[in-house]
Amino acid sequence: MNSYKITTLNDFITLKQKDFPFAKGELSNLLNHIGTAAKIVNKKINKAGLVDIIGRSGVVNIQGENQQKLDNFADKVFTDALRTSGECCGIATEENQNEIVFTEKFAKKGKYIVCMDPLDGSSNIDYNVSVGSIFSIYRRITPRGEKVKNEDFLQEGTEQVAAGYVIYGSSTMLVYSTGNGVNGFTLDPSIGEFCLSHPDIKTPDDGKIYSINEGNYIFFHEEIKKYIKYCQEKDEDSGRPYTSRYIGSLVSDFHRNLLMGGVFLYPQNKKAPKGKLRLVYECNPIAFIAEQAGGAASDGKKRILAIRPKSIHQRSPFYVGSKNMVRKIEDFIDERKRNN
Ligand code: P6P
Predict the structure, then answer these.
(1) CATH 3.40.190.80 spans which residues of the chain?
(2) Pocket of ligand 1 (CB under 6 A)
(3) CATH code at 209-339
(4) Phi and psi for 89 in degrees, rounded to 5?
């Protein structure tokens, strides 16, 4: 009988901790707490529709969006897991206007801060479309033992020590990186463990999928309209016309393109002059994963990870995926190169 080698998330985190000679297990412990919280959220999502957890919570969140009951649930589960980990001194999440300062003595000693979108794409929940949780981990700047401050959450994405996402789809996966490549773990519900299923993920330099909400076409600036037409033209050498795939759930659209090759676009447009997606807890963690897998992430002119956030909920135009496709979009946006 073939031996079925299972490497659980916990095994892998412990194994990889050895890559960091000075590691004392704090990041490992934090990542394991995130994994546990993801399993709890997953259980609730899988029953959505059967229990009174779908639909709106009746609260309009700080984004002015109707908060879903599951948004609220996921925000609480991840917040509690991070607070009790003893490794995290505060968090910034999509659901809260300001950073959440953990005041417990053991938490204030935490070395890390976490920025999260606890449940991205949750408006899709009621229609059984896959959604995700996105996380980004930094070392704090302020001294350990003191209360965390806003500046701790406004670091450039290059300062991330780890980032990842959970995708609650046909199966539930956790994909993360600590800066040494990207690895994917699939939840095996029969044993309640995330098991290594996608070791050392590399994204193709080119792809044939473009993901953008073409319903916004009339609001796009000219260069984006031209890029969409470029994707739709026939050119066998470059494999065009490309395929259009858009779920409307960032983690799902990104994850498919990460594995198959492709590019995701959320441009600034006349409806969303700064773009829609949030730099700190959506663009940066996804960009970190993309780059670690050999891809690229840009705001059209600048590397996403090099942007210095000015506020926690700052929005950014976002182009992410196969390196050569992101570069092509930048060429369309760069007037000097557009007509070459
Ligand atoms: P639109 C979900 O609301 C989300 O934040 C991302 O997950 C997704 O990529 C984007 O918004 C979809 O936005 O405007 O196309 O519905």
Answers:
(1) 209-339
(2) 120-121, 123, 213, 248-250, 253, 276
(3) 3.40.190.80
(4) -100, -5
